[in-house]
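Can anyone check this?
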Amino acid sequence: MTKVRRALISVSDKRGIVEFAKGLRELGVEILSTGGTAKLVEEAGISVRSVSDYTGHPEMLDGRVKTLHPKVHGALLALRDNAEHMRQAKEQGIELIDMVVVNLYPFEETIARADVKLEEAIENIDIGGPTMLRSAAKNYESVAVVTDPDSYGDILNELRRSGGKLSAETRARLARKAFKHTAHYDSVISNYLTHTFESGKESLPPFLELRYEKRQDLRYGENPHQGGALYQQIGSTEMGLAGAEQLHGKELSFNNLLDLAAALEIARDFLHPAVVIIKHNNPCGVASGESLSQALDAAWVSDPVSAFGSVIGLNRTMDAESASHLTSNDYQRDVIIPRYRKESGNEDVTVLPAFVEAIIAPDYEPKALEILRLKKNLRVIKLSDFNPPTRRHDFDLRKIPGGALLQSLDLEHMPMEQFKVVTKRKPTGEEMRSMHFADCVAKHVKSNAIVLVQGEATVGIGAGQMSRVDSCIIAARKAGRRAKNSVLSSDAMFPARDGLDAAADTGASAVIQPGGSKRDEEVIAAADEHGLAMVFTGMRHFRH
């Protein structure tokens, strides 16, 4: 093992760096540093040698050139067991560097801001940092490369235990982490520049190179006779489910993860507190309310029969009241079921006790977590990076035999002010708000999708049917008498009036759909005959 005698520190994320530098100095490690990092460490009373003093050259070009120097990279790349390398290093006055502590300019955080300008984004592309990381990681047998502030404590502990040395296993692990770090960084830059300079279909890459790292094996795939595993994409625009934290419950299954992904995608599409109940990758209840518990109740009442064995997504920190409602069979029996039967008129239904497979939310109140943990097998998932702005740079990839299909994400919603009223009767303000909500939900329902909404809560969903008429029938049956005067959303156009007639037969008073059929005039005339208000969005949301 090589003893760490000299470390170069240059970080943008300065969490814990003073304490780490202090620990290194206590171990006798000389510290080289640059710019703001050097100033911060020096102000803490820790001895620092500037990189400029080490190289004999000042920082140049407004700090663009600081560490791009042979004395830096020679010190990192020189093979310690190669006599010729050591001879050249001595001849050139190169003092070996045994550790690099670097994290990069905050490019990802910079482009996440809505007001960021291209010039600012460009200035936050780190050059020297990735170069040092790659040099150090390439020579990991002799050089330790540290990118993550959360690892400072473990590294110091190992150095203290081993007399200032890091094991080969540790150095190799740190090197892998460094290359993963730079791969992600370059991927984010590439995606940003592609989306900045190109648009539409042309923004999809001519070559697709993806790398995934296995995070865990799963018990099986969709069925017990299939294998399954969870992978995390290296260079992804977000941490996502593969990086989420499981706070409680038994291990996640392949199907759990698919349903959690569906719950996440829908929940983060809403600005106000929202709850999504997923069954077999389709929503069976979605609601938004003034509070999370209010939204949960409304989503659950939408279809409590289908909610048995579901996965739930919430776009706010889960509170104790919501957790109590969710886990209580008594609450379901005494509140949810009577409300459902009263509102829908569906008396002859069998509703099984409250049972949820998994929950995903940005966070959980301590009391809520305490309540949820009373359910031994309930999988409780926390995704703090719930809705990162960088997801707009991601894409949808689907594997097909011998290849793959790639598309940009369907993140768009037509704003209410751009709805086009096409019928004689204009929708009321309340209907317009419900239409907007229904359109957001229909985007996530398998085609052919029909969604019935009262206020900002679904009351009936028809999903995945080969005929839009059949989807209308299913949605109406789910809604019962709640369908009367509801708002109906269709994810795509009605190709003929039979679909619109079926929509009217549900009892809905207003319809929102993309339009674009050759028979739009026929469909509009049918809506007028039924006295419906109808708007066109001009934006289809097929979900195959």
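Reply from J.R.: I decoded it. The longest strand covers residues 211-217.
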